Amino acid sequence: MESIQYYGPDAFWDAVCLLGAVFCAYRAIVAKRILSATIYLACISALTSAVIYLLGAGRRHGIIGRGGRPGCAPAGKARY
To answer: Is 0.70 topped by the overall pTM?
Structure first.
């Protein structure tokens, strides 16, 4: 008998965000009004950024809380 694979809550939220993005993409394509299409495109952008964040972007290399890109001086400390 095969065991059931458990992926965890992270995989669930990734799938929910990706399915939401696909749904919003479909709605943006079939929308009759430009305002509706732009709202759906904004939802796609928000869901895509949520997936990228959930995948670990921002936690790598200690970027969060440092105030800039890796290798950049923090605000107020200029390199000469």
So the answer is: no
